[in-house]
């Protein structure tokens, strides 16, 4: 059985500009996801765009999605090769200059540019 999917277009006006985004729900409007990338809409976006979500359900879905992302990120970082790290050090050096300690706040990994 295919889940019911409702897609709607929402708008938000700020600073004299109007922004438009499509979002969808598959649970009758409790939780909404952006149609463009399937990510759970943040609560502030729901408020700003007038997306009629269930605040508790939306917040829980967003938190679960972020937890899953961080877990996957940490796993990928644990498997990083020396070449991966060399590229990150070079990028950080270009951005911050040489001799700077950079800390990945999600993994705690530190390196010097």
Q: Would you mind describing this structure in some detail?
A:
- The chain is of the alpha+beta class and 113 residues long.
- It has three helices and five strands; from the N terminus they run E-E-E-H-H-H-E-E.
- The radius of gyration is 19 Å and the shape is elongated.
- The relative contact order is 0.10.
Set down the secondary structure blueprint.
Layout: E1 6-14, E2 17-25, E3 33-34, H1 43-49, H2 55-78, H3 82-96, E4 101-103, E5 110-112
Antiparallel strand pairs: 1-2, 2-3, 4-5
Regions with pLDDT < 50 over 5+ consecutive residues?
A: none
Sheet with the most strands, sense and barrel status: 3 strands, antiparallel
Strand order of the largest sheet: 1-2-3
The count of DSSP E runs of length 2 or more, i.e. the number of strands, is 5
Order of helices and strands, N to C? EEEHHHEE
Cα-to-Cα separation, first versus last residue: 53 Å
Q: Given the C-alpha coordinates, what overall shape results?
A: elongated
Q: What share of the residues lie within helices?
A: 40-55%
**Can you count the helices?**
3
Structural class: alpha+beta
What are the main properties of this structure?
113 residues; alpha+beta; 2 domains; 3-stranded antiparallel β-sheet; 41% helix
Task: Give a short synopsis of this structure.
The chain is α+β, with helices and mostly antiparallel strands and 113 residues long. The protein is 41% helix and 23% strand.
């Amino acid at each position: 059985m295919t889940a019911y999917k409702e897609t709607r277009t929402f708008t938000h006006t700020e600073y004299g500009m109007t922004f438009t985004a499509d979002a969808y729900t598959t649970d009758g409007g409790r939780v909404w996801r952006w149609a463009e990338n399937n990510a759970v809409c943040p609560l502030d976006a729901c408020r700003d765009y007038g997306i009629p979500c269930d605040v508790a359900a939306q917040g829980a879905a967003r938190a679960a999605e972020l937890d899953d992302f961080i877990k996957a990120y940490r796993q990928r970082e644990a498997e990083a090769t020396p070449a991966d790290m060399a590229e990150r050090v070079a990028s950080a050096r270009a951005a911050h200059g040489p001799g700077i300690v950079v800390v990945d706040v999600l993994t705690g990994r530190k390196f010097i540019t």
